[in-house]
Amino acid sequence: MKRAWFLPMLLVLCGSVLAAGLITSGTPGAAVALLLVFVLLTGVTSPLIFPRPMGALEAQRRSADDGRPVVFWRPGCMYCVRLRIRLGRNARRMHWVDIWRDPDGAAAVRAANDGNETVPTVIVEGRPHTNPDPAWVREQLSRSA
């Protein structure tokens, strides 16, 4: 759990230090703008923008029932953030597994990617797809609906 928040907290700390330096140098407007940029980066890299994760076994069981894809991800992964943002509201319809929280999920990703924990890995109809195009994932999600 601590690993998931390391990068966001580091960004907040760095942004605060830089903003404090700008305020002491007499440019509070630039400090506010810089701090807003760092807060935005913190939000994007945090686990908060992702749907609530579940265990790999539960996600695979649900996927077998409803046919929706399973997405294995980890906080701080820019490719995962890109997929999540490009899916928009449709992302909530998928089953998300945080591989840093779930050892079974990490093992499933390693099995699909020759021992590497490459994310995002999307499982559609039992077949893994590593870092797929978000438009393709959206299409697969619409097929399962």
From TrEMBL:
User: What highest taxon heads this organism's lineage?
Assistant: Bacteria
Q: Pfam families this protein is in?
A: Glutaredoxin
This protein's UniProt keywords? Membrane, Signal, Transmembrane, Transmembrane helix
* Residue intervals of the Glutaredoxin domain: 70-127
List, alphabetically, the Gene3D superfamilies matched.
Glutaredoxin
Q: Which residues cross the membrane?
A: 29-50
Q: Where is the signal peptide?
A: 1-19
Record protein name field: Glutaredoxin domain-containing protein
- Species annotation: Streptomyces lanatus
